[in-house]
Amino acid sequence: MVREVSESCLDNLLTEVVSCYCNRFYPNKHDLAARRIEAIGYQVGHQLSERYTMERPRFNDHLEAIKFICKDFWLELFKKHIDNLRTNHRGTFVLQDNKFCWLAHMSIDPLADSSKSADGSASPTAGNKATHAMKMHLYFPCGILRGFLSNLGILCAVSADILTLPTCAFTIRIKA
């Protein structure tokens, strides 16, 4: 029996988790909220690693594990492969998803991001808040990647950047 979760339910859950941690639990402590969201993703990635690697042989190196994430794991999670994988062959990998589904329904007003207050300084705007909310949504998948690799014995740091909506690049830096 195959168990699946509705994509819309997962989208709504992620949105609610980010909203709760950022606005209700830690409204003035964005770093703490980000760490908590990433920790939830870490637990999910750790458990998914056990499920998806249970019946396959152990990975020989980091590159093999990253390729597994790009092809098989991403396909299971998002029904598509990673669009681009780059590496410097020294422990840094960049995984680019040109249509990251958890950002696909988001948008920001580009004019709102560039608004200035009367004295010329940047003021908090709806666009800035939307950009911040989008970045907060990326801590969860970063945690998933870090938890997945950690369960395989690969210690790493994972960060994400929004290139242009909904394109997202995940940078994985393997720790020696």
UniProtKB/TrEMBL annotation:
<dbReference type="Pfam" id="PF04051">
    <property type="entry name" value="TRAPP"/>
</dbReference>
<dbReference type="InterPro" id="IPR007194">
    <property type="entry name" value="TRAPP_component"/>
</dbReference>
<dbReference type="InterPro" id="IPR037992">
    <property type="entry name" value="TRAPPC6/Trs33"/>
</dbReference>
<comment type="similarity">
    <text>Belongs to the TRAPP small subunits family. BET3 subfamily.</text>
</comment>
<dbReference type="InterPro" id="IPR024096">
    <property type="entry name" value="NO_sig/Golgi_transp_ligand-bd"/>
</dbReference>
<protein>
    <recommendedName>
        <fullName>Trafficking protein particle complex subunit 6B</fullName>
    </recommendedName>
</protein>
